Amino acid sequence: MRKLYLPIVLTAAILLFSPQLSESMGELLPPPAPKKIIPWAEALAVREGIDWDWFYRLVERETKWELQRARGDGGAAYGFCQIHIPTARAWGGRRGSDAAIARKLLRPRENIRTCLRILGWLLKRYGGSQLLATIAFNGGTKHADYVREVALK
To answer: What's this model's pTM, rounded to 2 decimal places?
Structure first.
């Protein structure tokens, strides 16, 4: 079991918390997100108490802020933040049929609002730990709980 979680933890830690790696990869980074969405997303993240740099990197890793990558995980994840319908329903406050939630998640602003709501909930659950919140966002709370229980104690 432990071998399964180690790559998740190491990848999250390296990609999200290594400014040297980010700087050295500067030339390889994708084009910036759509200009209209960035100022709005940043203002919303700040208003929601979510660290903008962390959120930006998270979305960058999920879809590189490219709309054509807005469906992933075999078509089960939607939008810039790659949110699954059950996750949007459980933590993101989204209601309705699966098709209605999917349509909402494909709208950039709805997707970002839902993602920030989920990340806020995860940060509260994990005492402000961006690492554990990232692990939970990508792999589920069971993975993050395991990491917290085994690796961080």
So the answer is: 0.74
